[in-house]
Amino acid sequence: MQLANKIIIADDHPLFRAALRQAVGQAIEGVEIVEADSLAAVQEAVVEHSDADLVLLDLHMPGTNGFTGLVFLRGQNPGMPVIVVSGSEEVSVMQRAMDYGASGFIPKSAPLEVISEAIVAVLEGEEWLPREITESTEDDVTEEERKFAAALASLTPQQFRVLTMLTEGLLNKQIAYELNVSEATIKAHVTAILRKLGVHSRTQAVIAAQKLSVDPARTELD
């Protein structure tokens, strides 16, 4: 029996998507590959291809930053395993990705055969981290961050998009224009977001979301 029939590759760099396609092809012959270049595209792909066996997810794409996309994707699709593929090679970043529900973490510097090995391992039900990385025995995610992650996962896709735009500093009017809805609709979304996240202001919501970011200075390959 084939390990997988369909895999979603989510990365906004066409060249790296091509590299991942090659790695997937080496790991599994005849597998269907679905590509996405933003979090919104990933969400659409997951809905349209709910039978996908695996998602390969970049941490930094349009519509997401850091672990927010991973947390949201896992919350919305708990049965679909996710391997994070990132330019960051910090042990703490790898461990936090696993804490937030990833089944594996592949550095973008890894050779194709290692990427293939990781894909096979996760599809066989294992967790995968680079061999040279010793998993930290400490939990890098605080209880406060864990609670926020659970709350973040409860947002609807549209609410998540609004929150992402809030973190980018956009005003309600600007968000309404971008999403082609009324400003009143955005205000309603913001109210619901604050309630679900257990915060009292937009500023608090943005600060909480930024705790799930990854230091951009350490993700130059992303």
Automatic annotation (TrEMBL):
<dbReference type="InterPro" id="IPR000792">
    <property type="entry name" value="Tscrpt_reg_LuxR_C"/>
</dbReference>
<dbReference type="InterPro" id="IPR051015">
    <property type="entry name" value="EvgA-like"/>
</dbReference>
<dbReference type="InterPro" id="IPR058245">
    <property type="entry name" value="NreC/VraR/RcsB-like_REC"/>
</dbReference>
<dbReference type="GO" id="GO:0000160">
    <property type="term" value="P:phosphorelay signal transduction system"/>
</dbReference>
<feature type="domain" description="Response regulatory">
    <location>
        <begin position="6"/>
        <end position="123"/>
    </location>
</feature>
<dbReference type="Pfam" id="PF00196">
    <property type="entry name" value="GerE"/>
</dbReference>
<dbReference type="InterPro" id="IPR001789">
    <property type="entry name" value="Sig_transdc_resp-reg_receiver"/>
</dbReference>
<dbReference type="InterPro" id="IPR011006">
    <property type="entry name" value="CheY-like_superfamily"/>
</dbReference>
<keyword id="KW-0597">Phosphoprotein</keyword>
<feature type="domain" description="HTH luxR-type">
    <location>
        <begin position="148"/>
        <end position="213"/>
    </location>
</feature>
<feature type="modified residue" description="4-aspartylphosphate">
    <location>
        <position position="58"/>
    </location>
</feature>
<protein>
    <submittedName>
        <fullName>Response regulator transcription factor</fullName>
    </submittedName>
</protein>
<dbReference type="GO" id="GO:0006355">
    <property type="term" value="P:regulation of DNA-templated transcription"/>
</dbReference>
<dbReference type="Pfam" id="PF00072">
    <property type="entry name" value="Response_reg"/>
</dbReference>
